[in-house]
Design brief:
The protein is α/β, with parallel strands linked by helices and about 140 residues long. The chain has a single domain, classed as Rossmann fold (3-Layer(aba) Sandwich). The longest helix has 11 residues. The chain starts with 14 loop residues before the first helix and ends in a 31-residue tail after the last strand.
Length: about 140
């Protein structure tokens, strides 16, 4: 059994005791589902090999498409914390690849990044598509 409010993993104050190399910064990866976790791993690759930065993960539980997310995280060795506990810890930064969930509970800096190509893909549209003409969107047969 662990003490209330204390994690059995090296987060900040316990880092010196349990970590082999003391992390100088901690980052919370905010996970919504497997798609967002995959994108998050792409972004967090900038910290790979940098032992000064410790990355932990927490699921918001806000996605209806989150089946298999816990298994995805554990199969990749991604240390996951309960959401309600993660937002009480003193992280230096959080990174989220989705806008869902209780992100407003994060009391430290948060970076939001897109989780898929939909945000960045080029669309080919005819010039009249997306028209702002007054009759656009009306139910009149000639609109």
């Amino acid at each position: 059994m662990r003490e209330a409010g204390r994690l059995p993993v090296p987060v900040h104050q316990d880092n010196g005791r349990w970590g082999t190399v003391r992390a100088e910064r901690t980052v919370l990866g905010v996970v919504h589902n497997i798609t967002s976790a995959t994108r998050l791993l792409d972004i967090l690759s900038v910290f790979e090999g940098d032992r000064r930065v410790q990355v932990l993960f927490a699921r918001t539980g806000s996605s209806v498409l989150d089946g298999g997310t816990d298994e995805f995280l554990s199969s990749r060795g991604m240390l996951a914390l309960p959401w309600e506990e993660a937002v009480t810890l003193p992280f230096d930064l959080a990174i989220s690849t989705n806008r869902g969930g209780d992100l407003h509970k994060i009391p430290f800096p948060l970076i939001g990044a897109p989780h898929g190509a939909g945000y960045n893909k080029k669309l080919s549209r005819k010039p009249e598509a997306g028209s702002r003409k007054p009759e656009a969107g009306s139910r009149k047969p000639l609109a």
